[in-house]
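Protocol check, entry for the methods section draft. Step 1: assemble the input record (protein sequence plus ligand SMILES). Step 2: submit for complex structure prediction. Step 3: store the structure tokens unaltered in the notebook. Ligand used here: adenosine-5'-diphosphate. Step 1 record:
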Amino acid sequence: MITKISTGIAGLDHMTYGGFVKGTNNLIVGKPGTGKSTIATQFLFEGLKNNEGAVYISLEEKKEKFMENMEQFGFRLREYEQKNIFRYVEVKPKEILVNIEEGIPTIENSVREVNAQRVVLDSITAFLLIFETEKQQRDLTKQLFDRIDRWNTTTVFISEIEEEDAKFGVDYLADSIIRLDLKLDTERKRGRVRTIEVFKMRGTNHRHTIVPFEINSEGVEVHPEAMIF
Ligand SMILES: Nc1ncnc2c1ncn2[C@@H]1O[C@H](COP(=O)(O)OP(=O)(O)O)[C@@H](O)[C@H]1O
Ligand SMILES: [Mg+2]
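Step 3, stored output:
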């Protein structure tokens, strides 16, 4: 039997009939500025509110800047850091590589310390960029996913690129794919509209429509019944 866990976004839970499947690897794909980090953090914050441990692994953004940005949405991460159930771990892509099969101490110590149920890796793209060949990319990504599977966490991988990921095997390895975009409303000339789509979700039914969402002072709000234009 599968268990679903809330994403922290009511409209996204609606589209996925209850959220992410517990214990799976989920991919959020979109260009810069489409809302990936915000959605991922809202997912972690939902767990934190229920005293579930959470870890944000960052290969890109510095902690201070990230914490400040997220506080604007009311995601009080420092509070949970002090309660020892949240950790923000900054790692260099090469640190992950040292010995994936034996474990990744810098990250795994935090995962253990907070007894993490939810984890975000931001981004898998930064990890892929350190390799020279597609074979390396494919092999090491598989190793990384295998290692993370052993944590038994529900994990969100952030990806900045769309088409390229497929050939590195990321799309294939992920149990679900959520695609974000900023689509140009050419007809009504309202500028760009944020859109979200559940592209795939293994082992469960989900909605297939592309729907609008907004980012406001409370974070992300998805409108599952609305039309994009
Ligand atoms: N306080 C805020 N209120 C509303 N929208 C915001 C706020 N802060 C950031 N944004 C919007 O969110 C976008 C960044 O979202 P983010 O999750 O960081 O995207 P990504 O991780 O995909 O690059 C910004 O480009 C901006 O449009
Ligand atoms: Mg981001």
